Amino acid sequence: MLDFKRFELKDKPLIDAYFAEHHYEASDNCFTTLYMWQDPYGIRWAEEDGVLYILGGGKRDPFLLPPFAGKDAKFVDGLERAKEWFKQNNLKFQLKGVNPIIMERMQKLCPDCYEFTPDRDNFEYIYKSQDLINLSGKKLRQKKNHLNQFRMQYTNYEYMPLTEDLFADCIATAESWVETHHEEGIEDELEAIKLLFEHWDELGLVGGAIKLFGRVEAFTIGEPLNDRIALIHIEKANPTIRGLYQAINNEFIRHEFANYEFINREEDMGLPGLRKAKESYHPDHFAEKYDAVYSDICPLPAE
After folding, report:
1. Would you say 70 and 52 are in contact if contact means Cβ atoms under 8 Å apart?
2. Residue 27 · residue 10 · CB < 8 Å
3. For residues 248 and 219, is the Cβ–Cβ distance under 8 A?
4. Burial state string for 116-148 with b = 16 or more CB within 10 A and e = fewer than 16
């Protein structure tokens, strides 16, 4: 029986080693993401015979991510063990976060075994870093106009790297956001932000903030996902200040991630406003995710 447990900071080197085996593009394949969201989303992990298993969905709708095979293990063995686990627990077989490469491998292993459904709400937006820095061309002209307007109106704004002396101010900014917004899960996000600040160095995070008139009005937190992609975990800005979101996005990437080819700004969760905002930056591509269940014509027993 797989022994699923909480993510602890001491587990980071082991988890990182599994993710380093491949150039994953999705935020699911990042220790920090799993660590910061493990309580709201019931995320746990287990390891057996050189394979990493990640459980999500809590008790309400449990699922596994595709198994992560270590250097001396095989994906197919992990997949078979995952099937056994679902059967042992009287649960339907359900994988989430299946990327196109894994989907192709599963189809080759058994063409009639699985049904795949695109999880569009959780597709992650991948942008070219230089596009976000330069905002060149007709497609991004409006973004550049907002940024230029902000810089002209707030000539005294100050961008600075996030350091411990700014953490309290950033938390105050996030708490103000919670008071004026009522989206589902927003308080979980506030607790996640506090957790990141509490373990900043251990998690290897970087961040940036913009101060106006001595007050932090925007901040963002990210980290390298691999040697080509940087990942943005958190971005908060005062929505009443025109161009501030464009400014914190542009300044952070320009200062911290200019040497990375791509920036992952995560999913839109199916929220219309967030989808419109992310699409308006014209992503280079998506980190696509699919759900996988047994096909109705599957020759393998689903129970």
Report:
1. yes
2. no
3. yes
4. beebeebbbbbbbbbbbbebeeeebeebbebbe
DSSP state of 191: H
In terms of Cα–Cα distance, which of 177, 190, 192, 191 is closest to 239? 177
Asked if residue 30 lies in contact with residue 54, where contact means CB atoms within 8 angstroms, the answer is no
* 206 CB neighbour count, 10 Å cutoff: 17
Amino acid found at 98: V
Per-residue confidence in pLDDT tens, the chain, 303 aa: 799 999 999 999 999 999 998 889 999 999 999 999 999 999 999 999 999 999 999 888 999 999 999 988 999 999 999 999 999 999 999 999 999 999 999 999 999 999 999 999 999 999 999 999 999 999 999 999 999 999 999 999 999 999 999 999 999 999 987 777 766 667 899 999 999 999 999 999 999 999 999 999 999 999 999 999 999 999 999 999 999 999 999 999 999 999 999 999 999 999 999 999 999 999 999 999 999 999 876 655 544
Which residue type occupies 212? Answer: L
Q: How far apart are CA 148 and CA 146, in angstroms?
A: 6
Two tokens, residue 10: 């001491």
CB 125 within 8 A of CB 264: yes
127 neighbors 135 (Cβ within 8 angstroms):
no
Q: 231: how many CB neighbours lie within 10 A of its CB?
A: 26
CA distance 204 to 196: 10
